[in-house]
Amino acid sequence: MTFVEDQAVVLKRKNKKMDPTLDSKLVSQPVDVKNRKKDDDDQGSNKAKKRYVLVSFKELPEYMKDNEFLLNYYRANWSLKEALFSIFRWHNETLNVWTHFLGFVLFLGLTMTNLMEVPQIVDLITFLTRSFPISGDTNVSQDSEDLFLGTANLIDLKRITTPELDVNLPVTPVTRWPFYVFLGGSMFCLLSSSICHLFSCHSHHLNLTLLRIDYTGITTMIITSFFPPIYYIFQCDPKWHFVYLGGITSLGLFTIITLLSPTLSTSKFRAFRALIFSSMGLFGIVPGIHAAIVNWSNPRRNITLAYESAMAIFYLTGTMFYVSRIPERLKPGWFDLAGHSHQIFHILVVMGALAHYGASLVFLEWRDRNGC
Ligand SMILES: [Zn+2]
């Protein structure tokens, strides 16, 4: 059914009435609008509600036909108000909205915690500079202890700067802006994604606009993820900031401009989008190898490598789910509400961002102690 035909069906039904109990039933089950009984007809007061039923893939307007393996529980052409309140209803986007909204809340909490912790770090470092003597090199066992403590203290920056972690004297806290650029980029991506999933059922125009914002959010998250590692690793040789951060930002702007084309937002270009985002991520291999060579003897190399490898595995696995549309491809209709590929992809994106956050804390702590 085309979009125009679909609208015609909706208009045609405006004169028909509706079973008052139907709306509550519709919250949990899809309704085949074509086969609805004639005795659904009722007073005009329920006419408006009639549009807010969950429909099947076949009944969707063309612009919403994205994943043919999700058969039911779709919202289509809902008002903004109904779309907003549908965050508390079960449909096939509910978990897509919540996974990234909760991810946003998590990163907002981490940002607030770090903003509040900074003065205490300054105090602690001042205290440490007076209290602890300089001593020798760290070793491999120190590495694993660092990783363990770093993981356990991901939220608490104050604890990560406790004296048992390192023996070198802290110099002065480094600037935090690259770290907050990453946190800001992650929050923008997660929030724009959840807004996109919540409201893209409203209209074709809004759907396109929100998809563009969503892709811009993903690109922004990829670009901003480069800021903490590149800035802190090459802090003493800033020309590399311009090379790598300039390079990834240009690549990101090119991506955003390319994905403004409505055609590239369609399901046909799913693999192309994944490829372009993955390429941006893989750009990180170049400064990664460079950094590993420059810091080969740094004991923190293994810790950050572990975090960043975890991030890469989360993101690449997520991309594989996004492109392959497994598991719904194997059992169409079984994963409409929970467990489909996009939800798995969302969760893996949050986990990848968390792993990168862990790596960023290690970079910060290292630079706080080792200025240029
Ligand atoms: Zn999404």
UniProtKB/TrEMBL annotation:
Q: Where are the transmembrane segments?
A: 179-201, 213-234, 240-260, 272-293, 305-323, 344-364
Per its UniProt record, what InterPro entries does this chain match? AdipoR/HlyIII-related
**Origin superkingdom:** Eukaryota
Q: One Pfam family for this entry, by name?
A: HlyIII
Name a GO CC annotation attached to this entry: membrane
Q: How does it sit in the membrane?
A: Multi-pass membrane protein
Region (Disordered) residue spans: 20-45
**Gene Ontology biological process terms, A to Z:** response to hormone; response to sucrose
Provide the residue positions that the database annotates as binding Zn(2+).
197, 342, 346
Subcellular localization(s) per the UniProt record:
Membrane
Q: Name one GO molecular function term.
A: metal ion binding
What UniProt keywords apply to this chain's record, in alphabetical order? Membrane, Metal-binding, Transmembrane, Transmembrane helix, Zinc
Q: Does the keyword Hydrolase apply?
A: no
- Would you tell me the protein name for this molecule? Heptahelical transmembrane protein 1-like
Originating organism: Durio zibethinus (Durian)
What gene, per UniProt, encodes this protein?
Answer: LOC111285212
